[in-house]
Design brief:
Chain lengths: 386, 351
């Protein structure tokens, strides 16, 4: 029943700690304009707009899509605002895709952003409400014990996280829009960086970024137009959520993620993801989440994900390159990060990734997660329609 | 396009201040009621989507805990919009149109009483040009009411008549908050709250939650013999800047209404998400509803206005009225943003 949908335009802003040269309006406009140029379309070609971002307290504006909509050419058009915690960038792209897959719209613009410099994410995550647990140490404090849990269960070598960080930081040097670039980075620099939330070191952590990502998603007819890069066909999308207060939950290896990826592969007709997927952009805000998500995404057996990192399988020249762009560890405009993963996956199958292109990438996974690992969103894109 | 119907709806009683229960506790009984009445086993519901805003509870990720009210185990296919629940319904409806689900649960919740609602809504304005002016939601609505008075489109008496009528109609709605018979002449002697708005022109501050189950044709017929069909569902948006539009009209409602086909056949009643009395007059005009059309038989937002819920409640109240045998065709409308910035229009029809 669903119509074919494809990514036909991609735009990312330049990411930085403080984009003081633009307002929130200027930021989203920069990404959207670049996506439209890539799609060789104009504002009037767009039927509807879907905006995504993480908590509104991150900028201090309640439902900011209402004031941003006009800059995205929304007047007189439908506009939706998605918010599914850290997975939101991915979920937003999925909602935009569904507007095309349903046959309701032909071309949809979707934009996800965060301008963290206009507020303070650590503060926004640490508000104390009566009778509720407060997250005084931000996201790192929350996730560090889960990483410890993974290390104990898997027996992974202690330097696995450092290796992930080194790989991603070297990849970032090949990505023109990446935020954090450390030209002299090496193993020792990461190993000797301060311990922030044991076992997570400073250089094993994502930065706080300002930035936006935009996609134009079109139907089959719109994808047929000749462009500088071919379309990335959306083979499958999936979102999954699990509860917070539930004794059966395994926060180290969340069931929602296991189910989400299993259903995603089934929809896309993939039976051996390690073999059939050419590369993946996944949400790794702290280095150790690469091996954890390799298992959660069924790329490696449970307890074995760290081997992929250790053996170089996830390197740019490995058999399953992961986070070719430098990933969330190098660029984290939170609300945008999920969509950047989805966009970078699409760039790979479109052959647009420049220096961090994986040769012959035909099928790629985009992955995002959020909350305390309750929220997952994923898609698979390919160079041919499914 | 797949035919999709509302198969059940449940809402809390809307109250000035819910202090005994948090959002999860408010939601649990209404989710159970809606699921039980839907005829669809909970584990068979293919998609869940909620609508809420972090700024009501003053915390990031406020919606995350709400998922616990659903009992999301095994993990569910789920999404959330930072919008009124009416737009969560839209996302769920799209999911069904894609063929990814045959049924969906839509819910929304809001405890406006946790803060000063009008001031909280100030933070919804453009942070660079409007928010620093500190124009709260009532003041902006007052500007809109004044524009209509100056243009000769309505009078203060017209506004008071809307308020009195809505609250009289609300007497038959057990979930409504402000009900009763009010004398228009007497209302007009009240002092202004923010000129030209008097207290009666403004919505109450309300807490509440609502849950709706929708299903595509086959599943809907299997579940109930009383589906209320969503014949059309459209939404559009206007400029955010109050100075950038004619506040006495609602072009986005008109566009959405036209796309939804509201002018094609007569309706028995309409439920309009018009929190301020004069806004009913604007939306009536935009949808081409004459003076003889019954508007807000439930009492509407002037009788109970739980933020993020009140839009979804318009669709729910419409379905309830059709189930009650008081009509077979209705228009439901939802709004968001300052001075009716964003609007959704839906045509509902019983079998």
């Amino acid at each position: 029943m669903a119509e074919h949908a494809a990514v036909i335009g991609i735009g990312q802003t330049d990411f930085d700690a403080k984009r003081v040269d633009v307002s929130q309006v200027g930021l989203i406009r920069e990404a959207a304009q670049r996506a439209l140029e890539d799609a060789q379309l104009s504002w009037s070609d767009i039927d509807a707009v879907v905006i995504g971002k993480a908590p509104d307290l991150f900028e201090g504006v309640m439902m900011p899509e209402l004031f941003l909509a006009e800059a995205l050419g929304c007047v007189g058009k439908p506009m939706l605002r998605v918010h599914t915690a850290g997975s939101v960038g991915g979920s937003t792209a999925i909602v935009a895709a569904s507007l095309v897959q349903s046959g309701i719209h032909k071309r949809v613009l979707t934009v996800a952003y965060e301008k963290q410099s206009e507020s303070n994410a650590m503060w926004a995550l640490s508000i104390k409400l009566p009778f509720s647990q407060t997250l005084v140490a931000g996201a790192g404090g929350f996730f560090a014990p889960l990483i410890r849990g993974y290390m104990q269960r898997s027996g992974a070598p202690d330097d696995t996280g450092i290796r992930v960080a080194l790989k991603d930081r070297l990849n970032a040097l090949k990505n023109p829009v990446a935020h954090l670039k450390l030209p002299d980075v090496d193993f020792d620099m990461i190993a000797n960086s301060p311990m922030l939330w044991d076992p997570v070191r400073y250089l094993e952590t994502c930065p706080s970024s300002d930035g936006a990502c935009a996609l134009v998603i079109g139907n089959k007819e719109s994808a047929a137009q000749e462009r500088s890069a071919p379309p990335a066909w959306i083979h499958a999308t999936q979102m999954k959520t699990e509860p917070t207060m539930f004794a059966k939950r395994d926060q180290v290896m969340p069931q929602a993620g296991l189910d989400c990826s299993a259903e995603l592969y089934k929809k896309a007709g993939i039976t051996d993801p390690r073999k059939e997927i050419d590369c993946a952009e996944i949400y790794v805000p702290f280095s150790w989440f690469e091996p954890m998500w390799m298992e959660n995404l069924h790329f490696a057996p449970i307890g074995e994900g760290w081997r992929m990192t250790y053996e170089g399988a996830t390197a740019l020249d490995g058999d399953l390159p992961v986070n070719m762009s430098g990933g969330v560890l190098s660029t984290n405009a939170i609300g945008a990060s999920g969509m950047v993963r989805f966009a970078e996956a699409a760039m790979q199958v479109r052959g647009q990734a420049g220096e961090h292109q994986v040769d012959g990438a035909r099928k790629a996974v985009g992955h995002a997660y959020g909350g305390g690992s309750q929220y997952f969103s994923m898609w698979i894109v390919g160079d041919q329609p499914l | 396009m797949r035919d999709v119907a509302i198969v059940s709806y449940a809402q809390t009683q809307f109250v000035r201040s819910e202090r005994d229960q948090n959002e999860v506790e408010m939601l649990m009984p209404v989710i159970k009621e809606a699921v039980d009445n839907s005829g669809i086993p909970k584990q068979e519901i293919g998609f869940t989507c909620s609508g809420s805003t972090d700024y009501l509870s003053g915390q990031s990720f406020a919606f995350v805990m709400a998922v616990d009210a659903v009992g999301a185990w095994p993990p569910i296919n789920e999404s959330h919009v930072e919008m009124d629940g009416a737009w969560a319904l839209y996302e769920a409806w799209i999911k069904i149109q894609c063929g990814e689900a045959d049924s969906a649960m839509v819910f929304s919740f809001g405890r406006s009483s946790m803060g000063e609602t009008a001031e909280t809504l100030t933070l919804q304005l453009d942070p660079y040009t409007l928010a620093p002016l500190n124009a709260d939601a009532i003041s902006l609505a007052a500007l809109q009411a004044r524009a209509g008075l100056d243009a000769g489109k309505w009078t203060e008496r017209d506004m008071a008549e809307v308020a009195a009528r809505c609250r009289a109609q609300a007497k038959s709605n057990p979930d409504a908050q402000v009900t009763g018979d009010f004398d228009v002449d007497k209302l007009l002697t009240d002092p202004y709250l923010v000129s030209p708005l008097r207290k009666h022109d403004c919505p109450p501050v309300s807490d509440g939650a609502a849950v709706m189950i929708i299903a595509a044709e086959g599943a809907a017929h299997k579940a109930t013999n009383k589906p209320v069909w969503i014949r059309s569902l459209e939404h559009r948006l206007d400029s955010h800047q109050p100075g950038g539009r004619d506040l006495t009209t609602s072009p986005s409602t008109k566009l959405a209404g036209k796309a939804a086909g509201v002018h094609k056949t007569a309706v028995d009643f309409a439920e309009l998400h018009t929190p301020f009395s004069h806004q009913e007059i604007i939306v009536r005009e935009a949808l081409g509803l004459g003076k003889d059309t019954l508007v807000n038989p439930s009492g509407g937002p002037l009788a109970a206005n739980p933020l993020m819920v009140a839009g979804l409640a318009r669709l729910g109240e419409s379905a309830r009225r059709i189930w009650g045998g008081h009509g077979s065709r209705a228009i439901a409308h939802a709004t968001s943003g300052p001075c009716l910035q964003q609007n959704l229009v839906c045509v509902l029809e019983g079998e």
